[in-house]
Design goal:
By secondary structure, the protein is mainly alpha-helical. It is about 60% helix and about 0% strand. α3 (about 65-80) packs antiparallel against α4 (about 90-120).
Length: about 120
């Protein structure tokens, strides 16, 4: 008897799964009427190429390297000559660190560009 009950349950489970559910919805729903203000705008047919490329930006970063070195020298002197209890000293140290980080980023990108050029 238990085998018969198990067989009946095994036959009814796929039927219950196929039934879908109790409630059915129309997947499409009503078509909304859009006003001119909310209608999507059409994208341009062709996208314009950027006037500045990544190589141009990298060259610009390397061109300003002497200016950045000069700024770093001034900030190093200011940090060195400023007393430790001056409230502006952390700001000066932070600006110096930002200059060093910008230089490191520029030279890192230059190294990557050179290694890509050297790769056959």
């Amino acid at each position: 008897m238990p085998k018969l009950a198990l067989a009946i349950v095994a036959m009814l489970v796929p039927l219950a799964a196929r039934a879908g559910g109790r409630y059915r919805r129309d997947a499409r729903g009503p078509a909304p009427a859009l006003s001119e203000r909310v209608k999507p705008r059409h994208a341009p047919a062709t996208l314009a190429r950027p006037a500045v490329t990544a190589d141009d930006v990298l060259r610009g970063e390397l061109v300003v390297e002497p200016v950045r070195a000069e700024q770093a020298a001034i900030l190093e002197k200011l940090v060195r000559d400023t007393p430790d209890d001056d409230p502006q000293k952390p700001e000066l140290a932070f600006r110096l660190a930002e200059l060093y980080a910008a230089a490191a980023r520029a030279w890192h990108l230059e190294a990557i560009a050179r290694s890509l050029q050297a790769t056959p």
